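Give me the fold.
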Amino acid sequence: MPKHYWLVKSEPFKYSFDQLVADGKATWDGVRNFEARNHLRAMKKGDECFFYHSNEGKAVVGVARVTREAYPDPTSDEGEDWSAVDVAPVRALPRPVELAELREHPVLGQMMIFRRSRLSVVPVTEKEWTTLVALADRSAAKPAKRAARKGGRP
C-alpha cells in the first residue's frame, strides 16, 4: 500500500512538536471540521505528517508518523461523529520552514494549506513532501558550509 503524506496544524502554546517529542506519541483529536475529519479518516498507519506550528511561528517544524488509524474521538460528545488518530514523532526538521517561504516557492506555494487555510489537517502530495524535506535539509546545511569555509581560510 502506498504511503500518503499530510500536514497537521497545532498552535504551539496548546501542543508543540517539542511536546510531541517529549510525550513520544499523541492522540490527534479535537478536529471539528468535516473536511479535516475526513482527512483524518483517510490516514493510514505509517503515513507521515508535517507538523506545522500555526499562529505562533507559522512554520513546518517536524515530521510525525500515524501509528493508529482513525477511531472515535474521545473528546467528542455522545452521538457526535468525530475522529482521532494517534501520531508519534519521527524527527524535527533541520530548520523550521516558514509559511512565507512556502508561499513563495513555485511547488510549495500550491500546497493545500494555501487553498484550504482554515483546515487543521490537509493532504500533501509526494512532490510537495520531497520538495519541502529537501528545502529544509539543504537550507540548514548552507550556513554550516559557509561557517566552515570562513573558519578554514587564513
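Helices lie at 17-23, 34-42, 99-104, 112-115, 126-152.
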